[in-house]
Amino acid sequence: MPTPTRPSPSAKRPSSVRKPVFFGLVVVLAAGLLGFVSYRATAPEEPASGTTAAVTTAGPDPDVRRQLSELARRDAGDKLAQGRTDAPVVLIEYADFQCGYCGKFARDIEPELIERYVADGTLRIEWRNFPIFGETSEAAARASWAAGRQNRFWAFHRAAFAEGAKEKGFGRDHLRDLARQAGVKDLDRFARDTDSAAATEAVRADREQAYGIGATSTPSFLINGHPVAGAQPTAVFTQAIEAAAAEEANVGSAGEPAK
C-alpha cells in the first residue's frame, strides 16, 4: 500500500483542518491519540500483513469519547451508511479506495460484521471518504458518492474493493465500468454527479473531519467514539462492538449491570 505524504508545516490547509475545533480542546487531545495509533497502523517498519496495527487499549476519556461518538450522523437519508439509525453501536470508517488495508477490511472483515451485527440491529456502519493518495483517490471518492445518489454506494464499494480492482486504476472509464457492475442505472447522471461541486464538497467535508480528529492513515475507525486503526483481525472489531453494545445497554438501564 502506498504511504501518504504528509503536508509540510507551511502547506496551507483550510482553517477547519489547521485548527480542529469540532468540540473544543478535548477533541484536540483525542486527535493526538488517534493520530498516534493511525500512524503506527501503517508505519513503514510494520509487517506487510497490516494485522499488527496499533489499537488503543485504554481509549480516550469519557468526555472525549462521548464527543467523538457524536460524529455519527445517524441520518436515515445517508447513502453512504447501512444499518438502523437507532443502532446502539456506530462504526465510522475513514477510508481510501486505493488503500490495500481498506480493501482487506472490506473483503475479509466487514461482511462478517454486517452478517453478525448490522443484520440484528446492533451495528450501524457509516463510511467517510478519506482520499489521501492523490487525485486518483479523489476521483474514486467522488464516484462512490455519485453511485450513492442512485442508492448503489455499497455495491460500488464492493466492486471497487474487489481483488484486482485498484490495480486497474480509477480512471474515468474504469470508474464507469465499476458503476455499471454496481448496477448504477443512469451512467450519464453518474458521470455528471462525479464531476459535480456537490461531490467535491461532500468528499472535502469527510476528509476534513478525518484530519480534524487526528487520522493520518487509512483505514481509521471510530466505534462509539473509541479509535481503532488499521485492518485489525476480526476479533478486535467484534470485541469492540460487543463492549460498546454492553456499555449502551448499561446506560439504557440507568447504570445497572446489563442483564
Q: How would you describe what is shown here?
A:
The protein has 259 residues and is α+β, with helices and mostly antiparallel strands. The chain has a single domain (21-68, 77-252), classed as Glutaredoxin (3-Layer(aba) Sandwich), CATH 3.40.30. The protein has helices at residues 15-18, 25-41, 62-69, 100-118, 135-149, 153-160, 172-181, 187-194, 197-212, 234-252, and strands at 81-82, 89-95, 123-129, 220-223, 226-229. The longest helix has 19 residues, at 100-118. It is globular, with a radius of gyration of 18 Å.
Can you give keywords for this protein?
single chain, 259 residues, alpha+beta, Glutaredoxin, five-stranded mixed sheet, 48% helix, globular, disordered N terminus
Explain briefly what this protein structure is.
The protein is of the alpha+beta class. It has a single domain, classed as Glutaredoxin (3-Layer(aba) Sandwich), CATH 3.40.30. Helix content is 48%, strand content 9%.
C-alpha Rg, in Å? Answer: 18 Å
CATH T-level fold name:
Glutaredoxin
- Provide the CATH superfamily: Glutaredoxin
Instruction: Figure out the total of helices.
Output: 10
Strand portion, in percent? 5-15%
Percent helix: 40-55%
Produce the secondary structure layout:
Blueprint: H1 15-18, H2 25-41, H3 62-69, E1 81-82, E2 89-95, H4 100-118, E3 123-129, H5 135-149, H6 153-160, H7 172-181, H8 187-194, H9 197-212, E4 220-223, E5 226-229, H10 234-252
Parallel strand pairs: 2-3
Antiparallel strand pairs: 1-3, 2-4, 4-5
Helix pairs in contact: 2-3, 4-10, 5-6, 5-8, 5-9, 6-7
